[in-house]
Structure formats: C-alpha cells, structure tokens
Design brief:
5 strands, globular, Preprotein translocase SecY subunit
C-alpha cells in the first residue's frame, strides 16, 4: 500500500502527467454533465415512467454505453456510438475495398487523415439516420410535449443530437491529443462505469435482505477472479522468436561475422478484441428487429428466447457466433503474408523456418492454433452475465460479470495504465505495475504498426 501511495505522489510530481490527467478528468466531467441535459420538448416524467421497466435487448445495451443518456433523452443520447459504427464500417471496408486498403497500408499519414475525414462524414450521416429513429422511439413512448409542433421538434432535436455526437467525438479526440488514454474508449468506459455504483448498492441491499453478506462477498470474489482471467486473455501473447541475419564487423582481413539480435513477434491470443462480441450481439438482435418490421410478434416462441440474454437458446447461439466471428475477424486482422514480408525487409527470419511462403504458413498455423482457446474463452466471457443472472445476481450488476462491458473496461484500463507507466518510466520512477509486464512495453510489439 505504501508503494502505491508513493507511486501516486510520483505521478503528481510530473507536471506534464498531472496536467494530462486533470485535463482528461475535466473533459469526462463535461461529457457526464451533457448526459443529464434533456432534449427540448421531451417530458422527463413521462419518459422515466415509460422506460422504467427497460426496453430490453439492444436498447438496454445502448443505454449502458451512453451512461443512461439514451433512456434520459439527453443531448448525448446517441453518445459516441455513431462514430464507433462509422469506424467499424471503414475498418471492414479496408479489408474489402482496394481504395481503403491503399489508404490504410501505403499512403501513411496522408492516408490516415483521409480515413479520419471520411469517418467523420460517415458519422454525421449515421447520426442523422439514428437521430430520426431515436426521436420516433421517444414519440412512440408518449414522452413528447404535445404543445410543441412536430416539425420544430424534429428539426431542432435532430440538429441537437447530431451536434452532441460530433461534440462528444471532439471531446474524445482532445483527450487522445492532450490527455491520457484513448479518448473515444474512455467516453464509452465512463458511460459503463456510471451505472456500476447504483447496481453495486442495489445488489448489496438485495443480498443483505436475502442470502446475507457472505453471498455478496462470494459474488465480489468471483467477479474479481473473472476480471483476472479477462486480463490474462487481453494480455496473452504467443511469442514467435526471430533472428536477425549475421553482419560483418571490422574491415579487411580483420572483419568477422557477428550474430544478429534475437527478438520475437507477439501474436495476441485475442487479436480481435471485443469486435466478435459486438458483431454477435448485433446479429442476435436481428431476428426480433426483422419481425417487428414485418408486423410479427417478437415476444412469442423462439424470437422471445433469442431476445432474452438469460435463455438457453440465446446463449448457445451467442457462444457459437462469438467463436465464429473471432476466427473471421482474426483472419481479417492478422495477415501472415505481411509479417513474412516485413521480416524479409528487415533481413530477419524465424529459426528453422524458410523465409517467404514457409514463414507465412508457419505464422498462419500458429495464429489458428492460439485463436481456438482465445475464441472459446471469449465465448465463455460473453455468456457469463447470463450465468450470473441465473444465480440470483440482479440484471444491472450481472452485466459486469462478462460480455462487452467487462472487456471494454479491462482493455481501456490496461491501455491507460500503460500510458501512465510510460510517463513514469521515462522519468525513472517505478511504474504502477512492478511485477509482470504491461502489453506494449516490448520493442517488437510495434511490428504490426510498422508493416
């Protein structure tokens, strides 16, 4: 504990790091304030009564990511989600469309700037469409003041929602530039964390009235163990050793060969991150959404089961989809041919493996083998909230036992800790983590970004 307090004091001694942390906290405070400013023309009392029972499915997930702003009809009701959607679309297009491939891989900084501009424009378009759908949803709940003309309500609030999303995107970029951590990820994280205190207190009170304090302590211990396993999955890498070719040292007859440096290529056990869970969740919401558009009743039979995250059919299909999407997204993200070409350009090789196609095949085989346990663990984490709910944990608190929320929290916290530790180590202070190794501290872990 004393070492931790000393580390916090060291953080406060570094003016640049202190200013970055304070700037980040200030921006996050501005974002949270915006989550409580209600759109004009919306009646909060009627909206609260209509959403008290929860919309279920996709609506609850969006509400968690926006920190409750979605159900409150705040100016940040759509949050940063349209930007995330646009980024995913552009990233997928980078795998399939040659123009975006050139921008991402060959045009360097200018290509990244063009991609950023395209992503921002696509964000505006998505926000306008989602904003219209959101206002329709609010109106269907009967939470709109009848005295306000419909045209004025629509035009004004679509502009406000679009402005709110763009402003949130700008806040995230400012955190990335002048703060600490990835700004966009931190905005999502602060939204997820916002619901944690109330869910924690409600679960504590429920267990005191029911099973008692021992059961609550057991729940916290299980949650802590799940977080540790999640950290292991996020940080886990398979190190492929590499050897740089021998070089000649000296001149003339006195020259002699010197062995090249040894290093390794880190292949992540979970290279796809949280994307398989996001894709699987989107696909799970599709049947009920299609049924609603076709005039069917999504509350009957199999559709109801597939829209209930605590049901058996939902979790079986969900687990299979997460495993499949993990393989698909990893195959898109990890390109063994690029690794082989990079090693060849650097005059390096994998010991015992021929350069070129043999190297690419070897990396592909290793990636396939480590993706299997990674995908299974990711699938298990995805369905853990259903098991927590089945054992009596309230729904709001059960969401933190796995799924997208837990993975995002762990990944963002680790990334932020890594940046803070980098500032400390550059100034020869002890880092926050003295034992173990935070992902990204090895020199060869930049191979993927250099290719």
């Amino acid at each position: 504990m004393n070492n931790f307090i000393t580390t916090l004091k060291n953080i406060w001694k570094i003016d640049e790091l202190k200013n970055r942390i304070l700037f980040t906290l200030g921006i996050l405070l501005v974002y949270r304030i915006g989550c409580f400013i209600v759109l004009p023309g919306v009646v909060p009392e009627k909206l609260e009564a209509a959403t008290a029972s929860g919309g279920g499915g996709l609506l609850d997930l969006i509400n968690v990511f926006t920190g409750g702003a979605f159900n409150s009809a705040a100016i940040f009701a759509l949050g940063i989600m349209p930007y995330i959607t646009a980024s995913i679309i552009i990233q997928l297009m980078g795998f399939a469309v040659p123009y975006f491939q050139r921008l991402q891989q060959r045009e360097g900084e200018s290509g990244r700037k063009k991609i950023t501009q395209i992503t921002r424009l696509l964000t505006v378009a998505i926000t306008l469409v989602q904003g219209g759908g959101y206002l329709t949803y609010i109106k269907s709940l009967g939470a709109v003041d009848a005295a306000i003309p419909g045209g004025i309500f629509w035009i004004c609030n679509i502009i406000i929602l679009c402005t709110g999303t763009i402003f949130a995107m700008w806040l995230g970029e400012k955190i990335t530039d002048r703060g600490i951590g990835n700004g966009i990820s931190l905005l999502i994280t602060i939204g997820i964390i916002a619901s944690l205190p109330s869910a924690f207190v409600f679960e504590f009170q429920s267990q005191l009235e029911g099973s008692g304090l021992i059961m609550f302590v057991l729940e916290i211990a299980i949650l802590f163990a799940i977080v540790l396993v999640t950290v292991m999955i996020v940080q886990g890498v398979r190190k492929i050793p590499t050897q740089f070719a021998k070089r000649m040292v000296g001149r003339g007859s006195s020259s002699m060969p010197v062995a090249g440096n040894r290093d390794y290529i880190p292949l992540k056990v979970n290279a796809s991150g949280v994307m398989p869970i996001i894709f699987a969740q989107a696909l799970m919401f599709l049947p009920s959404t299609v049924a609603q558009f076709l005039g069917g009743d999504p509350s009957n039979g199999i559709l109801r089961a597939l829209n209930d995250f605590t049901s058996g059919p939902y979790n079986i299909v969900y687990f299979i989809l997460v495993v499949l999407f993990t393989y698909i997204y990893t195959a898109l993200l990890v390109n063994p041919q690029q690794y082989a070409e990079y090693l060849k350009r650097q005059n390096a090789f994998i010991p015992g493996i021929k350069p070129g196609k043999s190297t690419a095949d070897f990396i592909d085989n290793v990636t396939t083998r480590i993706t299997l346990p990674g995908s299974i663990f990711l699938g298990i984490i995805a369905i853990l909230p259903a098991f927590a709910a089945a054992f009596g944990v309230n729904i709001a608190f059960a969401m933190f036992f796995g799924g997208t929320s837990l993975l995002i929290l762990v990944a963002v916290v680790l990334d932020t800790l890594q940046q803070i530790e980098s500032h400390l180590l550059m100034r020869k202070y002890d880092g926050l983590v003295k034992t173990g190794r935070l992902q990204g501290r090895s020199r060869m872990q930049t191979i993927g970004s250099n290719m």
